[in-house]
Amino acid sequence: MEKLNVNYIALLITSICNMRCKLCSFAVPYLQSHFHYDKDIICEDLQTALNLCGSVKHVDLMGGEPLLHPAISDIVKKIATFDNKPAQIRILTNGAVVPDDTLLKTISIIMASGTDFLFYLDNYGSISTKTDDIKNKLTVAQIPYREVVYYGDEQFSNGWVDYRFDEAIPTQKSQTNQEIQQVYDECFFSTADMWELNNGKLFPCAYTVTSDALGRKCSEYGEYLDLRDSTLSISEKRKILHNWTTRKEYYSACRYCGGLRRNSPRYIAAEQV
Ligand code: SF4
Questions:
Q1: Looking at residue 1, what is its pLDDT?
Q2: Stretch 212-235: mean pLDDT, rounded?
Q3: Mean pLDDT, residues 224-250 taken together
């Protein structure tokens, strides 16, 4: 089977956060429990995913707030040693935690040995209290970052979408098959090959990974992949992933989701609950 060229894998490394964003794409305020994931298990799962894919441009370390994970430096270091490492490792942070010296040293070392790295620094205005400190520290350490502004008139993407993770039971957002198909067709995730990895399971989009974390049964098997499933061969697992890249029909979950679309309604980013 031909090698897959995946745009990115978002690796959820913690469900602990120092913010409680109402529209959090990982539904942090609505999860039953919060914890840092075991670093060795995270890295093993990611390595399995990378080996199945063949080629992945970006691995994004996400949460929760990934800078709160006590082993984030070890996780970055480990990923950079993979034979099949991504072209770039990125950390997405909320601008309220200053990265420690150990992490910055690790990043400098992996960059010096040829691994591309980028900080995504979300700036939510007054609650991103450490934005200036972070920018100064990264500048001094010569570590690249991209600031993504989510306040004022020029906010990125005009704000956040609402996946309605606050609903106790998800309601259907589109009624007819045609409407659901349209949501899927217009959804960024349907064409971008941006997958999300949480707790050993790989999902094709943000809605499906978070629904699973909330205990919702929105996805059929084959619409996600349990990387630890020993009953499937490597080629069977690859076939599932290959189907995602060529898929034309909507996922079961799309009926409950408004999608991440150009014309999806946008709301204030990082509003706290
Ligand atoms: S479930 Fe939502 S985010 Fe996922 S592909 Fe369907 S419309 Fe897009």
A1: 66
A2: 95
A3: 95
Average pLDDT of the segment spanning 59-63: 97
Whether ligand 1 lies within 6 angstroms of the CB of 251 is answered as yes
Q: Is residue 151 part of a domain?
A: yes
Domain containing 36 — which CATH number? Answer: 3.20.20.70
pLDDT of residue 154: 83
Measured CA to CA, the distance from residue 192 to residue 205 in angstroms comes to 10
Q: How many CB atoms lie within 10 A of CB 133?
A: 13
> In total, how many domains does the chain have?
1
**Is the residue at 268 inside a domain?**
no
CA–centroid distance, 142 to ligand 1, in Å, is 37
Q: Domain containing 202: what range? A: 4-256
Q: Is the pTM of this model over 0.90?
A: yes
253 CA: nearest ligand 1 atom: 1
141 lies in a domain?
A: yes
Query: With 90 as the cut, is the pLDDT of residue 2 above it?
Result: no
- Domain assignment present for residue 29? The answer is yes
* Atom 1 of ligand 1, residue of closest alpha carbon: 254
